[in-house]
UniProtKB/TrEMBL annotation:
Protein name: Leucine-rich repeat-containing protein 70-like
Matches recorded under InterPro entries: LGI_related, LRR_5, LRR_dom_sf
Originating organism: Octopus sinensis (East Asian common octopus)
Transmembrane stretches, start-end: 302-321
First and last residue of the signal peptide: 1-20
Domain of life: Eukaryota
């Protein structure tokens, strides 16, 4: 794991501890919520959008054991200006749609966790105007993340952990500046230009699969410590030249087909080998099928366990909010 990621993790822990240390004056528990302590509330989804009176509310979770199909409306919380909510947890929900501007007015949120939920659709600009420290999908199953869903949104780290996503549409991550970390997850179709105009600071896939991996301008992105199989043909030239240029391990991308190239790694091939014809089309920005797998080796053991530790500690911190 890169040092920068470890740094981000510790900053996250320190920030979280710092937040936990701030003690608020007593405020009454709002209707529809159970207050575990002064600033930790668990609220009923029946009351969405939730109206909160002015107060120093800090941490809110919505939880209904997935029993009702709900929308996450815009805004999900109606409250007085100058909100102090810094942590929002949506868990065990059966969500049909996270609406555009769902988190409007919640500009102080630093941690946003969506977990154990099944989500049919995330609309464009659903997370507009959030500028957060940590965003995480955890054990979610998501049908469609629509174009521009994560536009006008910043997060220092963006984690997709133990989640299955069917479709990530074109321009979903338009102009996002986060580090994108995907672990133990499956993305069935990451459409072409999903990270369009992206300024991602990192893309790490760990024990994950991206089955249909549309063409993306991943010039600065590395798939590190990933082993993958693919059909080697002219489409692979794009991968060879645009995606895996710097840190990535081309030798770990292995051709499954055609038979003449089976078992050979991309690092040993050139454009002519791949295309096997005179019609090499540089302009092609193809979709490819890349079955990925994390490399298990002694050299990577420490990195892997540290990454898992980041998730586990993050998870415990979030769960302790309940
Ligand atoms: C979620 O709601 C849909 C539609 O009502 C229903 O078919 C599905 O079984 C629900 N899922 C869960 C986990 O309850
Ligand atoms: C909200 O914050 C702004 C600037 O931080 C301040 O000018 C304003 O008075 C605050 N409003 C309320 C209702 O506290
Ligand atoms: C996201 O970060 C960029 C660059 O720092 C900034 O211009 C933009 O206003 C930020 N957006 C939000 C919603 O905070
Ligand atoms: C994701 O898919 C895998 C395999 O299809 C399944 O075992 C796992 O339970 C799914 N996870 C979620 C959160 O739906
Ligand atoms: C993930 O979610 C699924 C379905 O909600 C559940 O059956 C499973 O136990 C969860 N896994 C973990 C590790 O929480
Ligand atoms: C990316 O940026 C270019 C130029 O700034 C613009 O023409 C194009 O529409 C953008 N693409 C998307 C999907 O936003
Ligand atoms: C890639 O990253 C380097 C620094 O890490 C930066 O100088 C360069 O501008 C980036 N290139 C693009 C195309 O974003
Ligand atoms: C590509 O590699 C083959 C050997 O695998 C070699 O014969 C050929 O000259 C190379 N072509 C180029 C353009 O480097
Ligand atoms: C290249 O094409 C020739 C003739 O079509 C074929 O015999 C050969 O197996 C092909 N090589 C590869 C690597 O596909
Ligand atoms: C890539 O796949 C998408 C569907 O996921 C399709 O709309 C698009 O046309 C494909 N692009 C290419 C170049 O094949
Ligand atoms: C790649 O293919 C080989 C040979 O068929 C297989 O053993 C391996 O599990 C595959 N790896 C992935 C990541 O699918």
């Amino acid at each position: 794991m890169p040092n920068s990621m470890i740094a981000v993790f510790f900053i996250f822990v320190l920030k979280t501890v710092a937040l936990a240390d701030e003690v608020d004056t007593k405020i009454p528990c709002p209707d529809f919520c159970k207050c575990k302590s002064i600033d930790k509330m668990e609220c009923s989804v029946e009351s969405l959008p939730l109206s909160l009176p002015a107060g120093k509310f800090k941490r809110i979770s919505f939880d209904n054991k997935g029993e009702t199909l709900v929308d996450i409306p815009a805004p999900v919380i109606k409250m007085q200006p100058n909100t102090s909510i810094d942590t929002l947890v949506l868990q065990y929900l059966n969500i049909s749609t996270i609406k555009t501007n769902a988190f409007e007015g919640l500009g102080n949120i630093k941690l946003l966790l969506i977990s154990h939920s099944s989500i049919k659709k995330i609309e464009p600009y659903a997370f507009r105007n959030l500028d957060i420290t940590k965003f995480m999908f955890l054990n979610d199953s998501i049908d469609t993340i629509e174009s521009f869903a994560f536009s006008e949104f910043n997060a220092s780290t963006f984690n997709i952990f133990k989640s299955n996503i069917s479709t990530i549409q074109t321009a979903t991550f338009n102009k996002i500046t986060s580090k994108l970390l995907i672990a133990l997850s499956t993305i069935e179709d990451m459409q072409a230009q999903a990270v369009s105009n992206g300024t991602l600071t990192g893309f790490i896939a760990l024990k994950s699969r991206i089955i249909q991996f549309g063409c993306n301008n991943f010039h600065n992105i590395s798939l590190v410590k990933i082993k993958a199989n693919m059909t080697c043909n002219c489409n692979s030239v794009w991968l060879m030249e645009n995606v895996l240029t710097s840190d990535a391990n081309l030798e770990n991308i292995i051709c499954l087909a055609p038979p003449s190239l089976a078992g050979i790694s991309l690092s040993q091939l050139n454009k002519t080998d791949l295309c096997n014809s005179s019609t090499i089309t540089d302009s092609v920005c193809p979709n490819i099928t890349l079955i990925m797998e994390y490399i298990k080796s002694n050299a990577n053991k420490w990195d892997a366990s540290l990454t898992m530790l980041v998730f586990i500690v993050s998870y415990i911190l979030f769960i302790s909010l309940k």
